[in-house]
Design a protein that fits this description.
It is a single chain. The protein is mainly alpha-helical. About 60% of the residues lie in helices and about 5% in strands. It has two domains: about 210 residues, no CATH class; about 60 residues, no CATH class. α1 runs antiparallel to α12.
Amino acid sequence: MDSNLAMDAIRLVSAIAILAFASALDWRTRKVPNIYWVLMGGIGLVLIPIQVLADGEDPAYILVLIPVFAILADVYLDSDEETTWARYAPFVKYAIAVLSMVLLAMYLGDDEYFQHLLAVPGMMLLIVALYMLDVIRGGADAKALLSLAVLFPFYPGFDSLPVLSADSPSAEILFPFTFVVLVTAAIIVALFPLAFLMFNLARGDSKFPYSLLGYRIPLADVQKKHVWLMERMKDGKHELRARPIHDEDVSSAVALLHEAGFARVWVTPKIPFIVPMLIGLVISAIVGNILLLIFPL
């Protein structure tokens, strides 16, 4: 087994194992401790310099870890103190990340191998931006993706796998492996409304658009499950809403609905995104870059 194949195996086995444990925890509690992502990212941080040296590439390529560490420092070393430094530290860290990426691109960016490495902090910045825009909603989801970006600077490959592979390396740089995993996981989540609809039609609950977004459960079970209410009482009037308020006082909302005589209510589940992420990882490793079906490169 050559070094690249061995490292691909280590990366894939590590990612699947860690995501599998995290998925089980996410399913049960909707909370995943940072240790999972620190471990996965840590493996990636160790493997990057090992692979650069094993491949006989310029040791200067290891400098790509500067922007990577700058981004991770903001994610994991955030301070709760109300100081001037605490307020401006994130800007400083991301400025270091962006500036170092620009300088590295100027001096080393002509090499295709290094472009793969430079795509790592680029993907990390995209993940942070998607999280800040609330496209990626869970903090654990964003940290999992950041760790995957560090762990997979290159697409994993084994003999005839993945099935779909780009004809040019530029496709792997344009669509990093972690981005493909994210898109695949998002497609899986996008199928949930169809599953909800079929489930609700089988039970005779067909109320558009709510039957596409969730299902009805006994009011007494709302606080026992990982769900958001799609119903509430406001100023004595009953309201149904397609987009629930995530930070509302559930106990008060349930009490008001109970007083109004509601026994069953519409809810939307808190989707454990780590689960479709794990499925997306496996599909991406076996099938390959599904974006090539849309953007053949």
